[in-house]
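Hey, why these numbers?
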Amino acid sequence: MEQHIDIETDQQQDKGFTLVELLIVIVILGILATVTVFAVRGITNQGQDSACEADLKTIQVAAEAYMAQEGTYPASLAAMESEGFLRDASSTNWTYAFVAGPPVDFTVTATAGGPCV
């Protein structure tokens, strides 16, 4: 006589993740998200600074062109805009100030939006 004995064990095939495994994944995703946010923020700031520096260079070139044609530096950005040396500077995220010094000097500064050299 043949007898078959089926022994049931408590080891069933688990088809899921434990709470600890899920928490580890959530923590890792949180760390990756934080690193990504700070990396993107840094890239954005670099881009804004580069745009500001390019705008300052454009203003410098326009002032030099004005000087070459008029014999003196302009009194303001508005003077360069009205004469066609510079397009509307108010369309950027920066506020620019142009101060003409003695006949051979001028200063351009940018504010609002972060540091710009």
